[in-house]
Amino acid sequence: MDFKFLRELLIPAETKIVLIIMDGLGGLPLEPGGKTELETARTPNLDALAAQATLGLTVPLAPGITVESGPGHLGIFGYDPMQYRIGRGVLEAVGIEFDLRPNDVAARGNFCALDANGLVSDRRAGRIPTDASKGLAKLLTMQIEDVEFFVEVVKEHRLAVILRGADLGAELSGSDPLKNGKPPQTVRARDAASEKTARVANQFIARARAALAGKMPANMILLRGFDCYPNLPPLPEIFGLRAAAIALHPTYRGIAKLVGMHVLPVQGNTFADEFATLEKNWADYDFFYLHIKDTDLAGEDGDFARKVRIIEQVDALLPRVLALQPDVIIVSGDHSTPAKLKAHSWHPVPTLLYAADARAEGIAEYGERACARGGLGVLPAKDVMPLALGHAHRLEKFSA
Fold it and tell me: Tell me, which fold does domain 3-84+232-391 have in CATH?
């Protein structure tokens, strides 16, 4: 979608849109012919809404391509992830409100466990408590050459590592092998401007390993997603929306900030607290993005039953959204995270679009196979926002 073209079609409207993203929602059956996590979950409210909605499957980037949460969210927010790229480090840094400067380079860090052979035995260090990570992070603040390293805890094992100095490029490979049982990788520059950054990053990793020796289950650090602060066209301007984000995890607050949403404070740390925030702020915005992280965590842990329970918990809260009578409701995910694979995957994501004038298909089920029968078909995730605007009567008729 050409954003300039879209802005020319925008018209004022007193309509409201709610986008509920269950992170990593898509799944797979554990056995051939079985049901996915979403199909297994008891979701009477989502199923009833599906009967009044249009269903489909969204592709975050392209067929067969597995994405991280950054491009996955950019896609569902209406941006082409190939054109607009954000490294995971920037999302983490902005999400925790670190003062990221234009020349800084940020990386996503993970505390991890190395075995006696130097292989990664647990990329997430057992998801160590946040307080434990804070103590370990204090060991890693240092300066190498003229580059300062800031190590900030995001949550549990997750870190934002920020490099601040002169002549730093961000075109770098990561040290994270992305699988257990493999050694950490050497950070490599992808262009000449990033060679200094790669050199000091590898020195930092070596010093971190020495400082963390014996600190099991977090005796090493992995880095990936290097990037500098991006300049994205603001979502509120592109789509003519007063946009608000409701998310508990810093990463998703970060991406919402980067696209210009107002990130609402959540009093508490439960799904119900997020829905309460939606209710409290309902009068002040006309677009709400509400993020649920735990579906993705359960998928990455390979816990099929837990992912099912989380979906059911979200379903039980859906009537609170319906009571507000939004004009458009979209339920989807940023990517698939099947418990069977214990990782993100390339599978299209089940997506539901409800509106008063949606072509209700009478498919009273919200799941992968039901969505495959839906009228939306298989479509790029970036097409969802224009569809939402159309159903919210915020686009005028095009005339050449």
Answer: Alkaline Phosphatase, subunit A (3.40.720)
